[in-house]
Amino acid sequence: MKHRWIIAGVVAPLAVAATAFAAGPAPFVGEWHWDKARSVSPPGEPQPRAVVLTITSADAAHVAWRLAMTGDNGEQHQQSFNGTGDGKPVAVAGSTGGATAAFIVTATTLDSIYSYPDGASDKSSCALSADARTMTCHGTENDGKGHAAAYADVYDRH
Question: For a tag site, which of 6, 27, 43, 124 has the least CB within 10 Å?
Fold first, then answer.
C-alpha cells in the first residue's frame, strides 16, 4: 500500500501541534527524522531509506510542512502540506492519486484520515513522548478492497 508515506508526512506535524497547545509551538516546529529500526511497516511494503519531515507551522488554525523521502530504490520524493488542523479535508501537494487529508488536533493526540479517489484510506493517531523528542504514529491503511494493514512510524526530533 503506497499511500502510507503521504499519511506519515501529514500526521507527524499535527501530532506535534497537539502537544504544542500545552507547551507552546516553538519546541515542536522543526525537523523530524523517521526511525527505520523502531518503525513497523505493513507486511510486504518496502521501507524507504530515509524520511525527513520539516514542520514550519503546527496548530489547529494552520499546519505547514515539507516531507523529503528517499525511497528504497534511491529515488527522491517530496510532498508538502498547507492547511488546517481542524478536521477539514485539504489536498496533499505532491501526492500521487489526488489524496485529501483531514486532521483533528487535540491537546495530546492527532487523529487523521486520508482519502483517495480509488477508495483507499488511512487512519492514524500520533502522540509525543514525555520529553517531546520522539513521536509515534499508529495507523491502519485500507486499500478500499477489503484489505487493511497496521503500521507504526517513529520519528526523532533533530
Answer: 43
Give the separation between CA 10 and CA 17, rounded to whole angstroms: 11
**CB-based contact 27:20 (threshold 8 Å):** yes
8 A C-beta contact, residue 67 and residue 56:
no
Residues forming a β-bridge with 152: 40, 138
pTM of the model: 0.80
Q: Which of 76, 70, 60, 38 is nearest to 153 (CA)?
A: 38
Nearest alpha-carbon partner for 133 in 149, 154, 115, 151: 154
Residue corresponding to grid cell 509515534: 136
Closest Cα to residue 70, out of 23, 110, 34? 34
Q: Specify the amino acid at residue 100.
A: T
pLDDT for position 3: 52
Percent of the chain with pLDDT over 90: 37
The greatest distance separating any two alpha carbons of the chain, rounded to the nearest whole angstrom, comes to: 42
| Burial class of 73 by CB neighbour count within 10 A (0 to 12, 13 to 18, 19+) | exposed
Find the Cα–Cα–Cα–Cα dihedral 50, 27, 22, 34, rounded to 10°. Answer: 10
